[in-house]
């Protein structure tokens, strides 16, 4: 302690009284400066917090619609209102309600709804609607399939009808939230789904559908639970639209939706679906029978597994008899000649028109209903009880007797036009090369010709409807198409060349020279018919048809044609 007093005394003597005051003031100011610096650096935010100004809703009674999807996918999904096992549901969430926490209601029978990301605004009417039913960008009939493999769900097709859920102003009031949720009633806005693009018109209708044959009209009735927009369509139910000659004889059908007053009463009620299609147009021509009717009917009806009724307009008894096996394989019921029906027939599902693809004799497996030509040919094998699935493989027959090793060649003959004038000589040459040859004419007995064609490995003929019977050939068989003069290249490729590849067939083509056509006996050398067929084509289809299709026969140059048969044998060895 004594030492501290001595130290203070010495320290005090080192400064005058004035210097001591200055030193005290300086120390005090320094302390203040240090304290201010600390306050500036570590200053807390004492203002109002912005989060305190945020509100969940400007209205304590506002409801929000939320789509709850329990599935793993993140894509937008359209859910069929008739599908009860869907993973998607609509929830009604009550916000800012002190009387109830989040209350949830599931609407199992709601119409088809897309998942929306749009903000729901505080407006008097709020609508959630589906996408437009169709894009007419291209044909291929991207319509909804009822195939059991994808029940009620589609990621690339719009729903069957334009459905909406309307929330009226009463739901955006203050008051008891639970009562408002209970009062919410979804309203269906039902509308047919029609595809007017491509090469066919087709409408699919679901609900209270009434078919009146006397007026050629299909009514889509509205009820208190369905609000239908008054609309109408005109459909020609034959799958070759824009071909004026074909469509000229096809009965036009009217489709009326949203009808309440004046609708005919049901005389007959049906528990299965119905398809309305025409047997007019080019029905009776074997090529058009398949590309315009049989294949489109297969694409349209196969999904029902026989539980569908065919309402035929422009009935053709001869056609029905010809394709009775196909009709029985697609429907378990007798056909209805709807044009003669006095009664009004009522269904829950009606399809007016038939599906088809752009190309001839073709099925696009990437488009709904996702069938292929292979599927169609398997269907024909079943309908006609065809046994041979694949063509002969010559390498598998080495060492066997000639009787069993010979591939079968069917030479299609014609009686009137585009006939082989030397069919016997062609058959003789083919036999010498190792073929077993059958010469036959294509007839209207489909069951008989189907068995014959299916038993062969090679089908040969001049361009014409008879070559359509290639649909019955076994897989890996060979089609030989002989082209007359007249510029048939495009027709030959479109009608048979390209389709044969989709059927898993091998295709060979032989184009005759002018000297092999019998037209040289009817027109002088240098005539446009012989030297410039495109000039004849420029005069129109009927001029072309009358000469090259109706006046021409073929006399094959055997030496020139021989390599085609040798190539066929080579392919059968592969």
Automatic annotation (TrEMBL):
InterPro entries xrefs: Glyco_transf_61_cat, Glycosyltransferase_61
Domain Glycosyltransferase 61 catalytic: 373-479
TM spans (from-to): 23-46
Main location: Golgi
Subcellular location: Golgi apparatus membrane
One GO cellular component term noted in the UniProt record for this chain: Golgi membrane
Keywords, alphabetical: Glycoprotein, Glycosyltransferase, Membrane, Transferase, Transmembrane, Transmembrane helix
Topology with respect to the bilayer: Single-pass type II membrane protein
Region: Disordered, residue numbers: 127-156
GO molecular function: pentosyltransferase activity
Matches recorded under Pfam families: Glyco_transf_61
Compositional bias of kind Polar residues: 127-153
Name of the protein in its database record: Glycosyltransferase 61 catalytic domain-containing protein
